[in-house]
Amino acid sequence: MAKTKSFRCSACGANFTKWSGRCDGCGDWNTIVEEAPLSAGPASKSLGAKRGSALELSDLSTEEAPPPRTTSGIGELDRVLGGGLVASSAILVGGDPGIGKSTLLLQAAAEFARSGLKVMYISGEEASAQVRMRARRLGLADAPVQLAAATNLRDILTTLEEERPQLAIIDSIQTMWADNVESAPGSVSQVRAAAHELTTFAKRKGVSVILVGHVTKEGQIAGPRVVEHMVDTVLYFEGERGHQFRILRAVKNRFGPADEIGVFEMTGAGLAQVMNPSALFLSERGTPSPGSVVFAGVEGTRPVLVEFQALVAPSPHSQPRRTVVGWDGGRLAMILAVLEARCGIPFTGLDVYLNVAGGMKISEPAADLAVAAALVSAREDSALPAETVVFGEISLSGALRPAPQSENRLKEAQKLGFTAAITPSGGKALADMGLKLTQMGDLTAFVGDIFGA
Ligand code: TYD
Ligand code: MG
């Protein structure tokens, strides 16, 4: 049988049967590379292939106990994991180079070790002495973590087999290489092979593994995307350069809610937990000004208040600018279109800038109304009433839809000293939280009542 070749995009992970210069999946150039096949499909009987065993769905016990978990004591991390580290699970922690992944995981390694787990931290990027120096800087020098510096997968698997840690941290998957795969470390085939070996080892031997993956689109370095489907949990560590906040976000979790976030602050002595992110994100807020609106959001199970800032100015360009930081550009275009078509508020000839303060990324549709409020407020040069939070989804017809977890949002706003809230009408009746509640059915009524526009 002729060997079929397989190609994969190192940025988005899309699969192709032939090479091309540009990926049809993500549109990036020069990201497609040939990859070595992982396995050869079903083997013929003569080779002694084993038949897999199958079970009826009803045969499975319905009373399965929840998986055993170990908590690190770092609450922000444990919550994102779904309540602690599940035994034999495989976790990917992705993020930009320099964002703080090694720092976070060294701190996690130390805390899990102090909680009684046997932990091994394997670095392919730094010598053990450098890792030890980092640990000393973080005040973790006395933690009972085993350190190893290695990049050869065979060596690593042998070490893990002998030492049998309960948690192995691999920093980073891009530096690991399998000697049976003929391509450079960091290539898609290598990253995939190493991740496959390590995750199957984890399942078979009852070792939890945390793989660190750099997110980058440059050159031959494969993005962690190709690893995402092999692991149980995918966490991304994000933040803006120039801001001290870092956010650990679960984007996939077989053992807990996705969309959960943990908030950290970078300090000279490592990452510190932020127990009350709303207070932090709003800490730079001054007196109410046009274009600034506080959104009562929910990330996973936790309410988080953030400030949207909009600036609207006459454009010197023939094609006015639409610049967004921390929110979705497509969604902004939709809100602008609804404001124009349903409320008669055009933004033609105007540059629009929208920013989420504090380096936070928001993806909830419930932020629509806060964004619309910020845009109209900036355009009309009229500030929203002081100490007011806003939330609600906007439909293309201009109708406002109630947001999930409304009571949680209001409770958080009240806790932080806000006195009023503007929300969509309908949905579940909201309990009186001591906030002045203004409920609106559609966007036209909202801009008319609040801004007289
Ligand atoms: P590092 O953890 O090495 O990032 P990554 O592994 O994602 O590439 O962190 C980058 C640099 O930032 C490193 O020099 C240490 C420094 N740093 C701090 O000083 N304090 C902190 O809280 C963090 C997270 C990093
Ligand atoms: Mg690192």
TrEMBL record:
Keyword Lyase: no
Region of interest (Lon-protease-like), ranges: 351-453
Record's keyword terms, sorted: ATP-binding, DNA damage, DNA repair, DNA-binding, Hydrolase, Metal-binding, Nucleotide-binding, Stress response, Zinc, Zinc-finger
Motif RadA KNRFG motif, residue numbers: 252-256
A GO term, aspect molecular function: hydrolase activity
Binding residues annotated for ATP, in chain numbering: 95-102
Domain RecA family profile: from-to ranges: 66-215
A GO biological process held by the record: recombinational repair
A single cellular component GO annotation: cytosol
InterPro entries the record matches: AAA+_ATPase, DNA_repair_RadA, P-loop_NTPase, RecA_ATP-bd, Ribosomal_Su5_D2-typ_SF, Ribsml_uS5_D2-typ_fold_subgr, Rubredoxin_2
Described purpose of this protein according to its UniProt entry: Plays a role in repairing double-strand DNA breaks, probably involving stabilizing or processing branched DNA or blocked replication forks. DNA-dependent ATPase involved in processing of recombination intermediates, plays a role in repairing DNA breaks. Stimulates the branch migration of RecA-mediated strand transfer reactions, allowing the 3' invading strand to extend heteroduplex DNA faster. Binds ssDNA in the presence of ADP but not other nucleotides, has ATPase activity that is stimulated by ssDNA and various branched DNA structures, but inhibited by SSB. Does not have RecA's homology-searching function.
PANTHER family: DNA REPAIR PROTEIN RADA, DNA REPAIR PROTEIN RADA-LIKE PROTEIN
Annotated family: Belongs to the RecA family. RadA subfamily.
Domain remark in the UniProt entry: The middle region has homology to RecA with ATPase motifs including the RadA KNRFG motif, while the C-terminus is homologous to Lon protease.
Protein name, per record: DNA repair protein RadA
Organism whose genome encodes this protein: Litorivita pollutaquae
Lineage of the species this protein comes from: Bacteria, Pseudomonadati, Pseudomonadota, Alphaproteobacteria, Rhodobacterales
Gene that this sequence comes from: radA
